[in-house]
Amino acid sequence: MSVFEFERVTYHYPGDLVGVEEVSFRIEAGESIALLGANASGKSTLLYLMDGLYFPQRGAVRAFGRELTERALEAEGFGRAFRRQVGLLFQNSEAQLFSTTVEEELAFGPLQLGLRADEVRRRVDDTLTLSGIEHLRSRSPQALSGGEKKRVALASLLTLAPSVLLLDEPTSGLDPRSLQALLELLAALRGRGLTLVTATHDLSVAPELAERGIVLSEAHRVARDAPVAAVLQDMNLLLEVNLIHAHAHAHGSITHVHPHPHVAYHDHEHGS
Amino acid sequence: MIPDWMQPTPAPIESGGRRRRSAVRRAAAALNRMLGLMVRAPADTRPSGFLHHLEPRAKLIGIGVLVITATLVHQLALLAALYLASVAMGIVSRVRLGSLARVWLAAPLFTAGIVLPATLNLVSPGAPLATLWHFGEGARFGPWPLPSALTITTPGLLVAARFVLRTATCLSLLALLTASTPPAALLAALRGIGVPRVFVIVTAMMYRYLEVLVRCAHDLHLARLSRSIGPGQPRRERQWAAAGITALYRKTIALSQTVYLAMISRGYTGEARSLSPLPLAGRDAAWIAACVVVSAAAIAAGRLWGRV
């Protein structure tokens, strides 16, 4: 059974702003997917659709074999099971951390889903240790740094023990140490069989986060669905969807133009 | 192509000129101070003294009992004793005196200013203590007859003294509570003593996002300052302030929608649940008992002695 199945899904925001247009794909359990696309190409919209926060105007989104509709999610059995299974890391950690302390933040999800208090406390304690944020337990989210906020936001999902993690630009704004810690944690979770769907426009981290890449065009459609390695080699596609740029530059006496899939460093042979 | 006008040209940096602070700069400075207070607040409540070591629920109940006592007791001596006790508690608990001094000194003065008219025979008739002005017999103020003299009366002075002492005591006790308890713990304590969850959650989120919005407003002001030279025309500054309020309002709406989605995403269905507080320790129970005993003794003493 697929974890997610998108069938010709279209979602427009109020004012007829296009979110996604005629999008179709399937995600199987245990897969790691990178949703790649330029800003405003529809990556976050897709994650919100997967998490049952938005519902398509046309087409259908199915999760665990059942169509995701408001009515289905309001049914206590499916709604509760779905929320336990799927966790969404928002791009803006500020919006996700709404409790007064880190401990309460981690306890929020399991408590809403009806877990017993002693089980919630055990999960909170274990997750604080696993995430290396035990020292932040009693701190207010407002007093945390950007990297700490991201770690707490992710930890607040892990207490639900989800089988699917949806991550919206998880690496944005992180310093190198926080980035490395996050990548290691996500790699460990992938190793435990979690399904990871990561929306990002940072091509340098895509191979570390995913095996399969779904590329969204600036027309909010799926431009390509293939292994990440193949996607990253398709320079014409990446140029077309505004994920890389091409410019003239000089190496000694040689001046030439070629696409750049990277920001700071590149390595290539000089032919002519 | 970069247009010619964008070419950097060295501009002479002149000093001098009349200095006038713009409203934007004043607002930015005020927002900066507010941010400093909000971010520093949790650090100020680090455990150090007697009150800091009490469980927040016990502290809330004990101080609540003392505040109620201060509103029920009429004797000046008893009110003064409660006030001095609150000051002593602050010193024993090593609460930062700088923040409390404002409450201990400014609150009585401010309250005295408000209650001053109550000391006069125009409001509180009675035996005169001091005469301030002679109006003369048959004096009138428009259609209203005036007494022959404006005096401070004994009943008026008692009413004012009671009001000032009561206000100062209540404010001092509440200042002790907030200075020795982190805001998050205080909110959890409110929930622990049975205040409706929805009220506590709304208050907690309001407190949580106030800082985010203050920071946002601060950034808006700094962005404006970085692109302006000196104070602008008052009319233009008012226009800009209105535009800033609109921008902030839009951000607030967008943020509130995302927060709501984040809550739904983690299973919120309209009824928020939270962790139950742990049981109170013996020391906490002893503190509550002591506050109740002091309260009962003060009320009983007041009844026995009658009103001063």
Structural write-up:
The complex is a heterodimer of chains A (272) and B (308). Chain A has helices spanning 43-50, 70-74, 76-85, 93-96, 102-112, 117-130, 146-158, 176-191, 206-209, 228-233, 235-240; strands spanning 2-13, 17-28, 32-37, 58-63, 66-67, 86-89, 164-168, 195-200, 212-216, 222-227, 245-251, 254-260. Helices cover 36% and strands 29% of the residues of chain A. The longest helix of chain B has 32 residues, at 234-265. Chain B has a two-stranded antiparallel ribbon. A two-stranded antiparallel sheet of chain B has the order 2-3. In chain B, α2 crosses α6. Chain B has helices spanning 23-44, 56-72, 76-92, 97-115, 154-179, 183-192, 197-225, 234-265, 282-305, and strands at residues 128-134, 140-141, 144-145, 149-153. Helix content of chain B is 64%, strand content 5%. Chains A and B meet through α3, α4, α5 and α6 of A and α1, α6, α7 and α8 of B.
SSE blueprint:
The complex is a heterodimer of chains A (272) and B (308).
Chain A: E1 2-13, E2 17-28, E3 32-37, H1 43-50, E4 58-63, E5 66-67, H2 70-74, H3 76-85, E6 86-89, H4 93-96, H5 102-112, H6 117-130, H7 146-158, E7 164-168, H8 176-191, E8 195-200, H9 206-209, E9 212-216, E10 222-227, H10 228-233, H11 235-240, E11 245-251, E12 254-260
Parallel strand pairs in A: 3-8, 3-9, 6-7, 7-8
Antiparallel strand pairs in A: 1-2, 1-4, 4-5, 9-10, 11-12
Helix pairs in contact in A: 5-6, 5-7
Chain B: H1 23-44, H2 56-72, H3 76-92, H4 97-115, E1 128-134, E2 140-141, E3 144-145, E4 149-153, H5 154-179, H6 183-192, H7 197-225, H8 234-265, H9 282-305
Antiparallel strand pairs in B: 1-4, 2-3
Helix pairs in contact in B: 1-7, 2-5, 2-6, 2-9, 3-5, 4-5, 6-7, 7-8
